[in-house]
Amino acid sequence: MALMNANTLLYGARDAIAYHQAIQLPDDVRAAMFQADRDIRARLRKVTRFVIDSGRAMSYASAEYRRAKQEPLQFELRFLRQGSVVYDTVIDPARRPPQQTDLDDGIYARTSFLSDFEPGLAATKYFELVETALAPLCKERGWRLVTNKDTCVRVVIDEKIHIDLPLYAVPDTEFVTLEKCFQDVTGLKLVAGSARLSTVLDGFSDIRIPTDRVMLAHRKKGWISSDPRALHDWFVRECERHGPQLRRTCRYLKGWRDFLFLEGGPASIALMACAVRSYKEGGWVPQNDRDDLAMLEIAKRLPVFFSATIVNPVLPDAEPLNDWDEVTRKRFVNAANDLHGHMHTALEGTANAEITVRRLQEALGTRVPYRPDLVRAFDKTPARAPVAAVVASPLPLRRPTTSA
Ligand SMILES: [Mg+2]
């Protein structure tokens, strides 16, 4: 049983700024990120318009498409943000540089398909189009274009922010259906109301392009099946089911990962899947005003989850979310064990508020404020000796490790 209540130290209170506030993305960074993204969208729209108006769309068609079809390639772009900014789990990285805040803006080509899973647009030419369109903008702004990521075009805005642009293709026919549904709901054409698309998709779960019709451009593999919206829907559903604490614990876990691993820690989506599983599997009763206990329960399960396969919650047959080699796995399992050790000592292994704070700082870094006054002790005389040793003097903070 927990002896200490450190919820306020994590979540804060009306009059106390704590860990949760410290890991929020600052407003100016958020604003700069969205402005850069709007500029990227504007440039891409302009260039695509030019391609269409000048009758050059067909030059972006795959060889197969040209051979098989007489009619010109349909081709238009739409944009839909995805990932942590939309799930609302984005946090301010602990260690900058090299860590950066990441915005993922999906670019959707509404295009002709050759068959069910084969866009007429050539994946390589799609990359080419986006990179050629953005190169002058990057030059003007002093941004850096990164063209060696397999599944996106990356634009590094500054040392704090990068924007990833994964490139999708959606069949023209499916788009027409989506557009019609959107218009029925909002009374607007998609082009005019695109700013509301994300909200509309949140509100109407039946307005979807079928998952298996959304194709992602891969630099080496051509087109692969991948629907970010399905993952989004899954996480939003789980947050509705388990309450707002789930989202907060995902932020804390990302904060832990960023603090501990300079680069290359467990993927956010893997951490989110582990958090969700901890809530789903039960064996504890989540209390919305006890983020500290929720973190303890998740930390308890994390080494076991990391040791086995973390299945993609929307594509169970796809690659696991933790496709780690054995050395990496061991490192992550050890880190998870340490997190559990610290959480356990902080909440169940001491009745000293200072030790509670120190242990949480060791686990999550000094963005956990040194505020023993925010920790409440329930019972100063534990009936049983706690499992972990009570350390009388504060230990020096752990130095974050870099990945190999
Ligand atoms: Mg990204």
Automatic annotation (TrEMBL):
Presence of keyword Magnesium: yes
A single BP term in Gene Ontology: nucleotide metabolic process
Annotated Cyclic GMP-AMP synthase DncV-like nucleotidyltransferase domain residues: 78-168
InterPro entries (UniProt xref): DncV-like_NTFase, DncV_C, GAMP_synthase
Domain of life: Bacteria
Domain Cyclic GMP-AMP synthase C-terminal, residue spans: 243-370
Enzymatic reactions: GTP + ATP = 3',3'-cGAMP + 2 diphosphate
Molecular function GO labels: 3',3'-cyclic GMP-AMP synthase activity; ATP binding; GTP binding; metal ion binding
Keywords: Antiviral defense, ATP-binding, GTP-binding, Magnesium, Metal-binding, Nucleotide metabolism, Nucleotide-binding, Nucleotidyltransferase, Transferase
Protein's name according to its UniProt entry: Cyclic GMP-AMP synthase
Species the sequence originates in: Mesorhizobium australicum
